[in-house]
Structure formats: structure tokens, C-alpha cells
Amino acid sequence: MMNQEKVIVIDFGGQYNQLVARRVRECNVYCEIYSYRTDIEQIKEMNPKGIILTGGPNSCYGEGAPSYSKELFELGIPILGLCYGAQLMMLLLGGNVEKAPVREYGKTEVLVDAQSPLFENVPKSTICWMSHFDYISKAADGFSVTAHTADCPVAAAENREKNLYAVQFHPEVLHTQEGTKILSNFVRGVCGCAGTWRMDSFVENSIQSIRERVGKGKVLCALSGGVDSSVAAVMLSKAIGSQLTCVFVDHGLLRKNEGDEVEEVFGPNGAYELNFIRVNAQQRFYDKLSGVSEPERKRKIIGEEFIRVFEEEAKKIGKVDFLVQGTIYPDVVESGLGGESAVIKSHHNVGGLPDYVDFKEIIEPLRDLFKDEVRKAGLELGIPEHLVFRQPFPGPGLGIRIIGEVTAEKVRIVQDADAIYREEIANAGLNKAIGQYFAALTNMRSVGVMGDERTYDYAVALRAVNTIDFMTAEAAEIPFDVLQKVMGRIINEVKGVNRVMYDLTSKPPGTIEFE
Ligand code: XMP
């Protein structure tokens, strides 16, 4: 990303830090996030076209509150402060920040009072998202106030000569009507970014740089069929072709037909050259899981066995030079390293892998991308849409969707029930409307009656949630007739099931998966 024009976000602990960077990238400007602890010399070296200071939970005048060197404002780089970032800018430059007489929270009418590059093509009255206890009671010298609200005299201020801008609201939040326009006005207008960040050029540049880095080396990639590993593998394949080997471990806990579907796309009859090796290790996993019902123990066993199988395959291949990891940008940000040093994704699946496999370096081709950008890159690379827009599927697979002991028979039941559920959700046109949905097998058996016979069979639970970040979720409202149809089909078509339930639990207190 050396020659790419970039804007950096300095993070003061706000909950929307990643959102700010994503919105900037939507303006086709490359953007990275750094902690407020990042040294100013490092910031200077990056030579950003602009800097955005995020919100944060503290009071900027409080003792020990996150701050930054005042020198930042003297670099001649355009700066936009958001919420806490705006208050900090004012405080450091001589304005006043104090506890507001009235807390502002939620959608708020902001009145633009003056012509400003930041508010170009923004109406004089516009709805913005506010969330603050403190307010700027006096803007710093040299600043003029450009917007206010009923309770907030300084909703926006600027020192146009020095290219310093401050807004009390959150333009990155969707509730701010003109948020994207305001951010675009800053990065494209004030900072003068050309907006050249595009997935097609990213893909092209990455392929080129992978080719240069790898040379004639040998590369190994664990392919799960999930979005990240698929996109990484195809990118590598386009870059270095036959020097790449991809190992796909079928642990027998995949969705119905999924192993074959992955093989169809990536195997020898598929469109890519990636020396695809499928390891059918189903029975090994079932043997290891036999008699085990404790959830964490199950996850551990699946993870460890995965490594063992992968290691055996890797040994057959011999020494490799590079190992591919599907790390994506949120992993980098959440690990707190903000791009400063290499992070190895501690994915439960491949956790510890580097210890077991003999290799020299790690390649992380998606390290700079957000999930939606990974998907765009996937489409650029010509990966089929159904793979690119695949739902998240946990590494331990159906192992955590079967409560209690895992057996081949239970896997068959949950696979069949889940396939029916997914089919009917798609038939009802709901597949894109629901965040994540699947069937799980409860460990409960109960008495039922079918025909003239008494049954004593399993209960299947249907789960469907809407979520933005997978940290919280709400049960999705699925029309009753769709649920009834799914229930009818599961009871009729899946042997061993005599009851179907719909899980209404939100997260918290529930989790999305069952174990
Ligand atoms: P929970 O159940 O924690 O799930 O509410 C949140 C999201 O994470 C996925 N998930 C996992 N993904 N390995 C994964 O790769 C795991 O062990 C795992 N556990 C949960 C889950 O599918 C949901 O999207």
C-alpha cells in the first residue's frame, strides 16, 4: 500500500472506529486506523493526505484521558475531529470543553450556519447522530462556528486556513443523513484525495506483489471454502499458479454436500489452478469426538485434530516457503496492533499452525481489507456469488450445532434438517434478508406420535438472527407459514426427528451458535 494516497484515523477508543475507516473507503480513499498512542514521527512518515480523530468514551479534560501531541495540528495535514476528537482538538488549541447542561443523544437536527467546504451540498438543516455528555462551550481562537443545534452551540467549527475541522456529531453513523457526503467533502474536497482506491486495482496490485515476493517459492494454503480462505487462495493461484498447494480438510462437520461443492469449485475440474488436496478425515473426527459432550472440549478436539490432519498433509508436500493466512483488517485492528506488526490470526481452526508446519514466511493477502471489501475482491477474481456471499460458518462446523455428543447419525440429521431450512428460506426470498440462519440438533428426545406409532425422537431447533457485528443479535421474524412449511418437511423427510422448535433468544443472553 506504499504508493496509495491514504487518510489515517486516530482512534481514541470510540465504538465506531472501524466504521469511520469503512466509510472513508466507500469514498474510494484508502484508510487505516492507528491508536492515539502511535508516535507522531510514525504518522509523519506515513505522509497521510488527511487525518481523522475519532470519538471516545472519556472526557478530554479528565486526568489521564487519551490525548495527542499538539504538534499534530502544525503538520499542515488536514484534520477532522469527530465528537471526542473535535473536543480534544478545541481543548488542545485553547478552546473550552465542559460538561454540557443537556446531554445530546440520538438523531438531532443540526443547523448549518455558514458556507463551509465540509458542508458542500448539505442542506442548512440536516439530521445527525449525537452522543455526548461534554460539549465545546467555546471554539479555539482562529476557529469559526459553522453549525449548531438547539442544545449545542458548537456543533461544527473550522479553521479553514489551517484545514482543521471539528464536528460534534458522528458522520460515520448511518443515522447521520449526509454523513457520507460530509466525509467525502473532507477526504476528497479538503484533503484533495483523488479517490483511486478500487478493488480491481487492489486485486491487480496484490497479484503483482505476491508474484514478486514469492518468486519461485512454494506456497501452502489451508482452504475451508469460507469467504476469506477462498479469496486468498484464488488470489494466490492467479499470482503463482502451480507453486500453490491448497489443502481442504473435510472434518465431516460441514453442511450437507458442502465438501463436494468446495471440491467442485476448487478441485481439478474447477476453474482454478491450485493443486487442491481434499482430505476426507470424517471418521477420524467422529472417533475423536465419540463420548465427548462438553462444548469447549469438543471445540478443542476439532481444532487439534484439524491441525494434525493438516500437518500430515504438509509433511507429504515437504518444505514450503510460505504459508497463507486469511487474516482480514478487523482482525488486525482488534488485536490492537493497528498495522504495526504481523499478526497471526488465532482462528480456532489454524491456531498454532505455524508451529507445526515448516515454512519461512506468512502471506496475508487480505490483511488490509474489511469483510465487504474481501467480498468485492472475490467478485473481481471471478469467484461464484454463492461462495462470495456465503454465510459465516464456524470452524468447528456442525460440531457446535449438535448439543452433546457428536455422532455420524446426528450429523446426518442436522445436515438434512438444515438443508431443508436453507432451501425454504431461499424459496421464500428471505436468504439475503436474514443475517445468519441454520438448524441445530438439540440433545432432547421426546415422545411423539406419527401414524399410529409412538415415537421417541430428537427435537431440531431452527435459529435465525439479524446482527450487524455478531456481538449482539436479535431473532429474525420469519413468517409463520414459512416456519410451518419447514417444520412439515423436516418431520416428513428427516428420519429421527419428531419435533421442530424456533429459537427466539437474542444475544445476549444467548449466543448465535448453540455451544
Ligand atoms: P456466537 O455463537 O459466539 O457466534 O454468538 C458469533 C459468530 O461467530 C461464529 N462462531 C464461530 N466462528 N469459529 C468460528 O470460526 C468458532 O468457533 C465460532 N463460534 C461461533 C458464529 O457462527 C457467529 O457468526
Structure in words:
- This protein has 515 residues and is of the alpha/beta class.
- The protein has 15 helices and 18 strands.
- Strands 2-1-3-4-9-8-7-5-6 form a 9-stranded mixed β-sheet, with helices on both faces. Strands 12-11-10-13-14 form a 5-stranded parallel β-sheet, sandwiched between helices.
- α14 packs antiparallel against α15.
- It is globular.
- The chain binds xanthosine-5'-monophosphate.
- Xanthosine-5'-monophosphate (XMP) is lined by residues 299, 348, 392, 394-396, 436, 470, 507, 511-513.
In short:
With 515 residues, this protein is α/β, with parallel strands linked by helices. Helices cover 32% and strands 24% of the residues.
Mean pLDDT: 92
Tally of alpha and pi helices? 15
Please report the total strand number as a whole number: 18
Largest sheet: 9 strands, mixed
Which structural class should the secondary elements be placed in?
A: alpha/beta
What keyword list fits this structure?
9-stranded mixed β-sheet, globular, 15 helices, 5-stranded parallel β-sheet, 515 residues, binds xanthosine-5'-monophosphate, alpha/beta, 24% strand
Topology overview:
Elements: E1 6-11, H1 17-26, E2 30-35, H2 40-46, E3 50-53, E4 79-82, H3 84-92, E5 96-112, E6 125-138, E7 144-148, E8 156-159, E9 164-167, H4 179-190, H5 199-214, E10 219-222, H6 227-240, E11 244-250, H7 258-266, E12 276-280, H8 282-289, H9 295-317, E13 322-324, H10 329-334, H11 353-356, E14 361-363, H12 371-380, H13 385-388, H14 408-427, E15 436-450, E16 453-466, E17 474-475, H15 480-493, E18 497-502
Parallel strand pairs: 1-2, 1-3, 3-4, 4-9, 10-11, 10-13, 11-12, 13-14, 16-18
Antiparallel strand pairs: 5-6, 5-7, 7-8, 8-9, 15-16, 16-17
Helix pairs in contact: 5-6, 5-12, 6-12, 8-9, 14-15
